[in-house]
Amino acid sequence: MGRFSGFTNSLGRFIKTRHRLLAAFLFLLIIAVVFITAIKKDFELRESQHFLGGIPGGRLNNYILTFTSIDGNNQTANGSLSFKAGLPIWEGKEARILYGELAYADLTYTYVIFPKEHTDLMAGLITISSKQKSSFTESKPKSKDVSIKMFGNREIYPFDKYLIVGAVRCPAYIDNGEKQTDITDLKDEESLSINNFMPGVFMRKPRQGELSQAKSAFVGKAQVVTEKEVKELNNYKNKFALIIERPIFLQLLTIILGIMALGSAVYIGWVARFDAIPLQIAGYVVALWGIRNNLLVEVKSFPSYIDYGMLFMYLVIFSGIIFRKIAGKAKQSGQILPRNKR
User: Could you give the percent of the chain with pLDDT greater than 70?
Assistant: First the structure.
């Protein structure tokens, strides 16, 4: 009987241990899958940053838009717009190509705030760049600086995400001595290439849901965005719509550090010995502030959601200390004294 009972206990311990090992294995497997998926997506996005869109020089008019910096305080994406002429082959007489002014239009907030009224995203740009043909020259347009407003919430860094919408144009026409042909009348003779050299962010095409969410923010009700509209926004001829976001690696790092910081706060405030708390709090504050500065190295906004999270950690610590002090005094005040000391 004793042997059978010992065997049963051993079997029970083995089953419990096996279940724990299985649970630990599944937990580690989930973490590994999430980590590998995130890193893989980051590397895929990294490879697609140069070039987004067409190949420079593949068309008659080639626009090259290069983003070099992101201004989180003013919420702008900054860079330069340049022009590269293609190598067309003409039949018959030699033709001249005459160029107007190279221009761009920042259409982000126009697209978001007026989703119904603003159906032609080129309308504002044509007003800016159109000139009389007498002012056109054979000289190639000079490059210019660009600054495009971003639509998003910077306070939720590093989970912030921004939408930018814009258009580029260089009005030009072909003069072959007999007739004049506007470049825009020629099919597929414009091409837009986009380069992202902004540190710490990736650029990609927007999804339907992201465009709907951006439009709904101002209209107050859900807006339907079709695949056709998404494709038209990114025709990579003269229009573009892009999402700017942080690497998933940075987001995962923030989550992991946040869990570790919360666990440390709970331990210091609710478990640690009182005589060790002052030294532990000092080290915790220094470490947490160092993590905060490293995570927010590119963001100067204050307070951010990370700052609110730090305040919550401190509250966890001090609430635990206060609760334990009060509970300790209450316990002492509730003690029953011996009869001879009453």
Answer: 77
